[in-house]
Amino acid sequence: MSNACVVGLQWGDEGKGKFIDILADEYDIIVRYQGGSNAGHTVVIDDSKFIFHLVPSGILHPDKQCVIGNGVALDPAQLLKELAELEEHNIPTANKLFVSDRAHLVFPYHKQLDLVSESEKGDEKIGTTGRGIGPCYADKMSRTGIRVAELYHPEHLKNRLKEVVQEKNKILRDLYNAPPLSWEGMYDEYIGHAARLSPYVCDTVELLNNAIKASKRILFEGAQGTMLDVDFGTYPYITSSNPSVCGVSSGVGVSPKHIHNIYGVMKAYTTRVGRGPFPTEMDGELGEAVRKRGDEFGATTGRPRRCGWFDAVAVRHAVMINGVDSAILTKLDVLDREETIKVCVEYKNSSRSYVTFPSDLVLISDCEPVYEEIPGWLEDTSGITDKDKFPEKAMGYIRFLEKTLELKITMVSVGPERKQVIRISDE
Ligand code: GDP
Ligand code: IMO
Ligand code: MG
């Protein structure tokens, strides 16, 4: 029996949601291990479009279980909203979704601090999603966070909230000149959330390890992308968790020896939301055209995504860190109209070139991308389902990426829908 993980190999929004939904067919349990409602994972089935922020993207499969692990920053109001939306579509979640009692909760003060600290930074801001993710994980690490299990001890919760909100109010007032928050209102709100979430809450560490003993197959769902990883991404322009496979074990309480297969998802070009280095970013008009064709607007915030050419230097770094076994290439159709497609194969500054991603952002800012040019196929690929009907030049682009990344691409996506997928080789 083998378990697998799906990770993003760029700066997020690679199309992970679509492929988790597709791969879920072969697994029993789908598990989110990090991130929070900063994620926006899209699944399109015929006329229905679902965007999941916290609920694992396998939830649409009637016979699968889904787990939100301890490593997720859990915003209970957002989760309840998603559950209500699923109910409206007659998609059951009872006895199907399990939420870790160890997950850290996102509170209104986390979102408030996220927003005020960003606006204080002015031009230096990260461009966060404003979902309170950084402040929630900061509290986890500084041991002032409040976990799901604490919701079920009202007196204890009251005391914790009083104490924490008092401290946050000092920060809000003294550092940001922002209005204080009331712990009483928060307490009432979270006691309400606790009651509604209680059927879902359990010890998911036990659940998952028992499932492994029973030879159930698990699919771990990464959110964000490796280049946003707090340790391996473009720090400080990153998110505050480990989206790479490195986050799985601590994010769910399962030994790394139980992760057997790692799928990397990458777009045929690059996008990034928010600020930070982006060596292959396209200039104005071209960037606009790709954004329009690829519908590159954030699934969580609606912000326009910055667009650029495929960056093999960044993806090589992500492939190495994750130990990717095979890649899934998405949004190839978006390049259908390009006469020439560029791929950045190395970075170069006045003294040397780099084929893997440098850790030093100052150094990166002095580098220029070195491109190879590949002829475009100038054909509509969105209706192709058979590998043999694929334009030769499109296959040439895929083979070029495989060669420069030293990685096998097994599936290619040519549209948002479940069925718009071409298997080009076996795993
Ligand atoms: P995720 O965060 O990695 O799950 O990706 P998002 O859902 O944020 O963004 C991917 C977007 O591209 C979504 O709107 C998908 O419906 C869409 N999408 C996924 N695969 C393809 C594809 O192959 N072609 C096109 N045109 N759109 C795709
Ligand atoms: P999915 O799972 C793309 C980016 C934000 C910002 C940085 C920090 O849909 O791929 P945060 O709110 O996490 O503190 O913001 O990370 N970011 C994402 N970009 N896709 C995501 O998720 C993202 N989640 C966070 O835009 O640059
Ligand atoms: Mg997304």
How would you characterize this protein structure?
By secondary structure, the protein is an alpha/beta fold. Helix content is 33%, strand content 20%. The chain has 12 helices and 20 strands. It has helices spanning 16-23, 76-88, 108-121, 133-141, 154-176, 183-197, 204-213, 246-252, 284-293, 312-322, 361-365, 392-405; strands spanning 4-8, 29-32, 41-45, 48-52, 65-68, 73-74, 97-100, 104-105, 201-202, 218-221, 261-267, 270-272, 306-308, 310-311, 326-330, 340-348, 353-354, 368-375, 409-413, 421-423. Strands 9-7-5-2-10-1-11-15-19-20 form a 10-stranded mixed beta sheet, with helices on both faces. Strands 14, 16, 17 and 18 form a 4-stranded mixed beta sheet that branches. It has a two-stranded antiparallel ribbon with strand order 3-4. A hairpin with a 2-residue loop joins strand 3 (41-45) and strand 4. Helix 3 (108-121) packs across helix 4 (133-141). The longest helix has 23 residues, at 154-176. It is globular, with a radius of gyration of 22 Å. The mean pLDDT is 96. Magnesium ion binds at residues 12-13, 39-41, 299.
Brief synopsis:
The chain has 427 residues and is an alpha/beta fold. The chain has helices at 16-23, 76-88, 108-121, 133-141, 154-176, 183-197, 204-213, 246-252, 284-293, 312-322, 361-365, 392-405; strands spanning 4-8, 29-32, 41-45, 48-52, 65-68, 73-74, 97-100, 104-105, 201-202, 218-221, 261-267, 270-272, 306-308, 310-311, 326-330, 340-348, 353-354, 368-375, 409-413, 421-423.
